[in-house]
Amino acid sequence: MAQESVDLSCDYQFWMQKLSVWDQASTLGTQQDTCVHLARFQEFLRKMYEALKEMDSNTIFERFPTIDQLLAKACWNPFILAYDESQKILIWCLCCLINKEPQNSRQSKLNSWVQGVLSHILSALRFDKEVALFTQGLGYAPIDYYPGLLKNMVLSLASELRENHLNGFNTQRRMTPERLASLSRVCVPLITLPDVDPLVEALLVCHGHEPQEILQPEFFEAVNEAILLKKISLPMSAVVCLWLRHLPSLEKAMLHLFEKLISSERNCLRRIECFIKDSSLPQAACHPAIFRVVDEMFRCALLETDGAPEIIATIQVFMQCFLEALEKENKQLRFALKTYFPYTSPSLAMVLLQDPQDVPRGCWLQTLKHISELLREAVEDQTHGSRGGPLESWFLFIHFGGWAEMVAEQLLRSAAEPPAALLWLLAFYYSPHDGRQQRAQTMVQVKAVLGHLLAMSRSSSLSARDLQTAAGQDTETDPRAPAQQLIRHLLLNFVLWAPGGHTIARDVITLMAHTAEITHEIIGFLDQTLYRWDRLGIESPRSGKLARELLKELRTQV
């Protein structure tokens, strides 16, 4: 590596001298010498670019103080610009000098200089000497007209592409595939320049009629990278076209979101919601093809983590953001529900799509019973067109956490006999792998716990130990079992809603949180509960204050 650095420095000095000679004399001899060395100089430029792209602008000038002079001399040499890929590589090298966020006037001036040189390169092969003489005769220096020239060229090309898109099968007026491919290639190093945005957008939305994609993969990758890093801002229609035309870009956008979620604070749904909305994925997912890819990647994450609660919560937040984007885009579904959820019952999907906020509170219990009936038929009877089995139905159900999390509250806040439909829904939500017999046993266990909790809610004095005993939490049962997690969540709901629950809430949580894993589970439950209460507007002052205090205390402990 050190040897390569020494070699590059030696080459740099050699070519700097060569360019100075070529620049000072335009005799036949210097022109011949230039042509002889063009291939070697292009190879040197490639090596320079590989080195420059790994450094920021300040580091580049520390290592190569005269780099601007070298590139300028090369850019004003017509033989170099006309040779093979030298023009493109020069553009790449110049873009490495740009400060994305200039901190002082020197950096701003450098950016302006680079922009001017880029404009010169783009216009050098199209405009001849007469044009230069004409503009000079009008009193304009190159630094004045090159930026405007670039902007006009971009707008002209963008207009031509839009016409190309509208011309359809009119082959005489259509831009050739080769020219489209060439344009996309030239744009790669220029993508982050604001003036080039219209051309990038026009290329993305311009669909050719070829059987294969004609735009360069490097173009899609560069645009996607710039979008993810917030270096450019394109209309949502252009972003959708990008992700529809180049699947790796959509997959990378999802992985970028996952990386942000992993590195963020655990169990903070408000922050997760901000990351998700900022990713533009919910808005783009209004197109079913993008939604299906995103949903499949969430499914893979869920399977890889054995159904981790954090992944389930993230899916639910994404779904909420998606539904908001869908409603904002169009009150009526542009695509049939079946295109979003092809393997599930349309009638079940339609019921789940209802926002609990839009259903009168008095009808919540009836709606939950209806959801339970449809799910049970899909899971146990395989009717209503469900083809994916229990896990497919469960995966659909967890998308709509608003309904799933309301079941326990409805059971605890009702003095009536617990409806079998709601008991089944709880058992299925927490353990979709169970067969009928095992799920029936869980329902019996949950019904017994609910009976104890409702009896204790009428007691004048509550104790955390008695509550734990009544719920069967003091036995040797594996605390990681789905049924035990279900019961823990019933207890947490109870201490938040029961009249005397707030007095023993801390003691109950201390008894439950005997492992770090369960502590994180409780934090997740409280955060999710507060997030849902805030959305539905059902938070009581006492319960909300208690949940926030508990959440804050637990977060300081982990």
From TrEMBL:
Q: Which PANTHER family match?
A: FANCONI ANEMIA GROUP C PROTEIN, FANCONI ANEMIA GROUP C PROTEIN FANCC
The protein's job, in short, is: DNA repair protein that may operate in a postreplication repair or a cell cycle checkpoint function. May be implicated in interstrand DNA cross-link repair and in the maintenance of normal chromosome stability. Upon IFNG induction, may facilitate STAT1 activation by recruiting STAT1 to IFNGR1.
Give the record's GO biological process terms. cellular response to oxidative stress; interstrand cross-link repair; nucleotide-excision repair
The subcellular localization recorded is:
Nucleus
* Keywords for the protein's UniProt record, in alphabetical order: Cytoplasm, DNA damage, DNA repair, Nucleus
An example GO CC term for this entry is: chromatin
Chief localization class? nucleus
- Coiled coil where? none
Gene that produces this protein = FANCC
On subunit structure and binding partners, the annotation says: Belongs to the multisubunit FA complex composed of FANCA, FANCB, FANCC, FANCE, FANCF, FANCG, FANCL/PHF9 and FANCM. This complex may also include HSP70.
Q: Which organism is it from?
A: Papio anubis (Olive baboon)
Name of this chain's protein:
Fanconi anemia group C protein homolog
